[in-house]
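USER:
Class, as today's exercise, take the chain set out below, and explain how the chain folds.
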Amino acid sequence: MKYFRVFGVIAAVCVALLTGLWWACSPHQPSDAELERQFVKHRSDLDHLTQMMDEDWQMSRIAPDFTWRQDTVVWPRIESEWGISRERWDDYRNIFRKVGAKDGTTRRQKSSDVIIDIWSWGIVPAGVGVGYLHCGQSRNGYSHTEEPCIENRDSGNGMHGQSKSYGYRYRKIAPDWYIYEEFN
């Protein structure tokens, strides 16, 4: 009986230490205030990124280490099928480093909206991502697909479609710009 109590105390201490270590070592989500300060500091670079994505309308994702086109997400691909040149990709990566966009940019299928992916944690079935969302002009068959751009409000939150776990939160920080969080 005494051994069970000692074992229970040791197990509880180990769980507490592991939980504390996990929390201390995990990346911490930036606050809206921090994101807004960074937005003001890097506004011209962020505007430039959205202009580049508008020029590269055929791209759905440009990350530091891979690219996806609107017609394929296969990676790796041969360089001639990346969708942008190596020099253009280097231009994106330089701006990503400057503005802290660790995960690059995302444009959903046929969307005029661009997400600049600043921070993420987790994996596909359970995670969170935070970035800046720019609501672009609808044209050439591309239109708004992101809820903040469709709803056109100062802030909001909800679930994507009929999902019970895939949600979002947003807050407007400038005309056509939002802090945008998605979680699952």
Observations:
- Residues 28-183 form one domain.
- The helical segments are 2-25, 32-41, 43-55, 86-99, 147-151.
